[in-house]
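Journal club side-thread
Mid-discussion, someone asked how the predicted structure for our own chain would compare to the paper's figures. Pasting it here so we can look after the session.
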Amino acid sequence: MEVLKIVKEVDLKKIVDRLKLGHVGVILSDTVYGLSCLVSNKLGIKYIYNLKKRALNKPFLILVSDFSMLKKYFSFNLEQENILKTYWLNDKIYPTTFILSAKNNLIKLLNINKKQGVAVRLPKNKFLIKIIKSLDEPIISTSCNISGQPNVNNFKEIISLFNFQSSQPDFIVKFKNIRPKRRSSQILDIRDNSIKQIRF
């Protein structure tokens, strides 16, 4: 497992290049460390399911770089868009993930039921947004742990976790002066135009 030390903005290309090659990495989001790959990387997604020992009927969180990318993969109306902007464009509000209806292109990529909602977030981490924008497509992100076990959110603990497994991520990103938060994002389902809390 390669350790990528990101000090300057130019170093972000290291992550972009590896994700474009189909690699799976451990990347710090705007909340906690997550296992990530391109949303179009079906083998990578399958590998992440294997790493986490996660049930295949549970889709992963999608991270987008802006509302233009969101519109390409998700369906939402003006009322829902206003809710999204209220939470995502206000830095004072804790990072929030929303459950939305996926469009057919995303449904095919994730191989999910059309009625199944998908979690999505526009990160508040500017480095991460630049990575996704450079990729020109969303990335998968899921907590760096074995399903059913507590999140592993310490760099050394993540290294230790995968050192004892036969399967490992291809790389892990170590950002200089950027630390993970103490908890994952809250999750809200707004598919029926109301706000339903799924996770606090």
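Post-session note: Helices lie at 12-20, 42-52, 67-73, 78-88, 104-110, 126-135, 155-163.
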